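The pair is listed for reference:
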Amino acid sequence: MATESSESEEEGKIRGGNDKLIIDDDLREMGKNAAWSVSSCKPGNGVTTLRDDNLETYWQSDGLQPHLINIQFQKKVKLQLVVLYVDFKLDESYTPSKISIRAGDGFHNLKEIKSVELVKPTGWVCLSLSGTDPRETFVNTFMLQIAILSNHLNGRDTHIRQIKVYGPRPNPIPHQPFQFTSMEFLTYSTLR
C-alpha cells in the first residue's frame, strides 16, 4: 500500500501530508477510466484542474456545503486508495477539514465508507478505502463520491489541487499467484 501521511492517522484524523507522491507498484491509477463531475465550481477552476497533474491549479467550489466530487465508472472497478493534494499554507480557509468518501452503484444508493478529519494538511494525503477486516483490501464499486463537509477556519468554498484514485493492478494470468514480467516466462507459465 502507499505511504500514509507523514504524521499519525488516529481516530479518523490525518495530520500533515507528503511532499512527494509515493505509490506501490501493485497499484494503478484508475481515474483516467472514469467520468468526473463536481457539484459546483468557479469559472476557470473546474473539474479539469483536479486531473491536470499541475499542483499550481485547483478546483474551487462555488456554493453551499457539502461540496461533491463524483467519480463514475462504466463497469464495476476495485478501488483501494484515494490520494488528495491539498495545501493549508496556500489555501488557508479553503482547505478541507472534514471529508466523507461514499461508494455505490449510482447516486441513489451511495453509502459512506470512510470519514476523515484533516488537520492543516499540506501535500499528498492518502486515504485508504480498505475496511477494518484485513480481507477487505479494496472497494468494488461503480461510483465514488468525495464530499467536503467542512473547511478549516469555517471557510465556505474549498480548494483541492489534485485527486488520484488507485486500484489493485490486475494479474495478467487468472488464478496465477505470480506476476511474470517477460514474454518468455509467460510462455512457460502454464502446464498443459
About this structure: The helical segments are 88-91, 183-187. The domain at 33-168 is CATH 2.60.120.260 (Jelly Rolls). Confidence is low (pLDDT under 50) at residues 1-9.
